[in-house]
Design goal:
By secondary structure, the chain is an alpha+beta fold. Helix 1 (2-24) packs across helix 3 (46-63) and helix 11 packs antiparallel against helix 12 (214-227).
């Protein structure tokens, strides 16, 4: 008894000293080792530590109202650290601790993990008495009423198990739309299926981590069988779309209805993992749509629920058949978040590895046809009704006919008779429209992958593929035999060169690569451009008209870096989106950040990485940042190249591949000489950077002057808006030289060094070929015309030889408008013209 009193007195004295030390500490709570008293407590006998924990609880009860919040949290942090050490507690001690925990107002203050560990340690060697059961039940009840996280819910389940409460429970939290629907539907089932759902949801909540084990899947598939496989997957098809709907009930002023409740998010993740057991197109599409919803960004907060999105990627990669992989290819093009891209890439690599392929080969071999019978064409008979689906480049059209007569849509009778088949056709058209951009981006990315094929493989995967062939037949390819080489495109059932001569010497072993203008003479490039215009073939991306960036004398002088795109002012969020779209890694610059790594692109096939250095501008939160603290604008600097870590050869049965470890975000001490960089890599990287500047520059914004743009950037805006042309604008000018004679307004237009001049009835206008901004003669007055988001370049039936140059479309749209300026009725434009 005397020893106990001494221990208690000693513990009380140490806690008093600890309270004084934590009160004088200014900062976030830290461990006991930070304080002199804390170190003495940790060095004491476990019995003393137990008394110290109880003394801290007593301190809370006597001092709480006189202490500031940070002091409270420091002491609470010390208590939780002690309780986590497995202290020797009596039943009386444990009851006191439980009583204190129940009295705390919020779940995160109760110390549920620590209390659970204390209870589990005590009950290992002691019986569960009625007073102890009652206190644990009180803790469970108070915790369930509070704001739960998925982690705290797992600890609560452990507490229930400790007191023998094994009743099946529906763990869904009544809040999210999908969870409310699930609760209602499960509650209407028979008892056996309700119990199976409860057990299944319990297993979903207990499982943490980024992916399930085969054993976890196997065990839960048994529960799915009790529920009924069809009933289970039909429920997922109903619930998954509802996860996209924001909830109305908010939990406090800092809650956001766009986010799923933590418990529901963990349960949904488990259900997504189990969706991998179905390979049907409907489930694959539903999981894909859920991934897009999960990665939808909430302004200032990030993705809604990345853990659910990552579970979707895992499920799609582990589905039987090819439906899941097809959806992954679509998601790779649609979700550009760096973290999502990394998970998708790793998932595809894992799937490819399982069947002995490199990821690039795997992606090109498993592109679905979506019902197309021939390249770009499907004809489906439904009785006397015919549906024709036609893919033209990156466009999909759907036509209906009966007995040769065109119909605007199927009749009511046909819709009733063939309802299911019509639903399948509609879904196939949607899938085609989603997949085409993904395949276009994949093919364009071949330039930096050093991919080549045997002719027979290339023909199967590209030229004659029902879907990919619609783009491959509009592109120029380079063919190489032992002694011969040439370029060709598909025309009228054969491969022809730019003189329309067929390449008759191609055999099955001929090497095939994607043609790039960098490797050809200017005469051949011009010949191909003329050929495309003559045959009116629109390429899915710029190829014959692709910009080329050659090393300049200035860059040879700087040796290791290019300043060609330095000293620009970019809109940060637009720049960040463009980086994601072009496969660059970048992080938003915040005013509170230390120095961040530059934007970078990894080129594993070359063992290189490219860097574009940018930094935030400004110091005033009110004018230079948004509500989340992100800089509004960036200043640009150098482009540099570095070696990346050792490129590891991946020996797969299907052939050799390459995998490069990503850099750690630290600038390498030894940038490479620009003359060491392969010409194609240098050109393609600078083309990306040119795109970043051309699109994200404040000088590209026609609203800038009239919209109150910041005075300090106005000189830059004017210099960019009407300055020298970049490579993209020079290519645009070359194309306009060919197109102008074809225009109905050709007699009113002429090209100068930097402008397309248009003579209207009221004024003459100069449209800059880089920014599309306009000056009016005679005094170069600025004319602000803001184009709509969807500008039709083809207003006058004008053919453009490639997709994707929205600025060219804007320039032509403005030219047609201004050539008939006397017809303009928009007062915001007429006021400027007549001023």
């Amino acid at each position: 008894m005397l020893d106990f009193l001494k221990q208690k007195q000693g513990a009380n004295a140490l806690v008093d000293q600890l309270a004084r030390e934590t009160a004088s500490y200014r900062g976030y709570p830290v461990g006991l080792t930070h304080y002199s008293a804390g170190r003495q407590i940790l060095e004491s006998h476990p019995d003393v530590q137990a008394q110290a924990a109880l003394a801290i609880v007593a301190w809370f009860r006597s001092r709480q109202e006189q202490t500031d919040n940070m002091h409270l949290w420091s002491m609470r942090y010390a208590l939780f650290e002690l309780l986590g050490r497995g202290l020797p507690l009596t039943e009386t001690d444990l009851l006191r601790l439980l009583d204190w925990s129940v009295g705390q107002s919020h779940g995160y203050m109760k110390g549920i993990p620590q209390m659970t560990k204390c209870c589990a340690a005590y009950l290992k060697g002691n019986p569960l008495t009625e007073p102890l059961r009652e206190k644990i039940e009180n803790l469970i009840e108070s915790s369930i009423r509070g704001d739960q996280t998925a982690e705290s819910r797992r600890w609560i389940l452990q507490l229930q198990e400790l007191i023998g409460d094994t009743r099946a429970q529906l763990l869904l939290e009544s809040a999210d739309v999908w969870a409310n629907t699930a609760l209602h539907e499960i509650g209407a089932l028979v008892a056996e299926k309700q119990a199976a759902w409860a057990e299944l949801l319990l297993c979903c909540l207990r499982k943490s981590g980024s992916s399930p084990s085969p054993k976890w899947i196997e065990n839960n598939v048994k529960l799915v069988d009790i529920i009924g496989r069809n009933d289970f997957f039909e429920a997922l098809l109903r619930w998954f779309p509802l996860a996209n709907q924001p909830r109305e009930a908010l939990f406090g002023r800092f809650d956001n209805g766009e986010f799923l409740r933590p418990v529901n998010a963990d349960l949904l993740r488990g259900l997504v993992w189990l969706a991998s057991q179905s390979g049907t197109p409907e489930i694959a599409r539903s999981v894909s749509a859920l991934a897009i919803s999960a990665y939808r960004k909430v302004p200032g907060r990030g993705p809604r629920t990345a853990k659910v999105g990552n579970a979707c990627f895992w499920a799609l990669g582990n589905m039987p058949g090819t439906e899941g992989v097809s959806q992954l290819s679509i998601l790779k093009a649609k979700i550009k978040t760096n973290s999502a891209q990394k998970v998708i890439t790793n998932t595809l690599a894992g799937v490819a590895s399982r069947i002995g392929m490199i990821p690039e080969e795997f992606e090109e071999q498993f592109v679905p046809s979506y019902g197309l019978d021939d390249v770009g064409l499907a004809r489906i008979k439904l009785g006397d009704l015919t549906c024709e689906i036609r893919v033209d480049g990156v466009n999909v059209t759907q036509n209906w006919s009966r007995a040769g007569k065109q119909l605007s849509s199927p009749s009511k009778q046909s819709r009733e008779q063939f309802a299911e088949k019509l639903k399948e056709i509609t879904q196939s058209v949607k899938d085609l429209r989603r997949m085409l951009p993904a395949q276009r981006d994949r093919i364009e990315n071949l330039y930096l992958q050093q991919r080549s094929w045997r002719f027979l493989d290339w023909r199967d995967r590209y030229l004659d593929h029902p879907l990919v062939g619609t783009m491959a037949r509009r592109l120029i390819w380079r063919f190489t035999n032992v002694n011969r080489a040439g370029s060709a495109i598909w025309l009228d059932g054969r491969l022809v060169d730019c003189q329309n001569e067929p390449l008759t010497w191609i055999d099955n072993e001929t090497k095939v690569e994607l043609w790039h203008p960098l490797h050809e003479s200017m005469e051949e490039v011009q010949a191909w451009r003329a050929w495309l215009l003559k045959h009116e073939i629109r390429q899915p991306f710029k190829q014959a008209h692709r910009e080329i960036y050659i090393l300049t004398d200035a860059e040879r002088s700087t040796h290791t870096y290019s300043n060609r795109f330095a000293a620009h002012i970019l809109r940060q969020h637009q720049f960040n989106a463009l980086c994601a779209a072009r496969g660059w890694k970048n992080a938003l610059r915040l005013m509170v950040d230390a120095e961040l790594p530059p934007a970078m692109k990894i080129l594993p096939s070359y063992g290189l990485r490219a860097e574009y250095w940018v930094e935030g501008i400004g110091q005033d939160y009110r004018t230079d940042a948004n509500a989340s603290g992100s800089y509004l604008y960036l200043a640009t600097d150098q482009v540099r190249f570095y070696h990346i870590d050792t490129v590891e050869n991946s020996a797969h049965a299907g052939g050799g591949g390459y995998r490069a470890r990503a850099p750690q975000g630290v600038r390498n001490a030894d940038p490479l000489s620009l003359e060491e960089i392969p010409q194609l890599v240098f050109s393609e990287i600078l083309r990306d950077v040119d795109l970043f500047v051309g699109v994200a520059s404040v000088g590209n914004d026609p609203n800038w002057l009239d919209g109150g743009g910041q005075v300090r950037y106005r000189d830059y805006w004017h210099n960019f808006s009407f300055g020298e042309l970049n490579e993209t604008a020079k290519t645009r000018k070359q194309l306009l030289e060919t197109l102008l004679p074809r225009l109905k307004i050709a007699d009113r237009c002429r090209l100068t060094d930097k402008f397309l001049e248009v003579r209207g009835e009221l004024r003459t206008y100069k449209i800059h070929l880089g920014s599309s901004n306009i000056l009016m003669e005679p005094n170069d007055q600025y004319l602000c015309i803001v184009p709509s988001r969807q500008v039709e370049a083809n207003q006058e039936g004008l053919f453009l030889p490639f997709e994707g140059d929205s600025t060219l479309s804007v320039i032509l749209s403005k030219a047609f408008l201004l050539a008939a300026d006397f017809r303009i009725s928009d007062p915001s434009i007429t006021r400027q013209i007549k001023h």
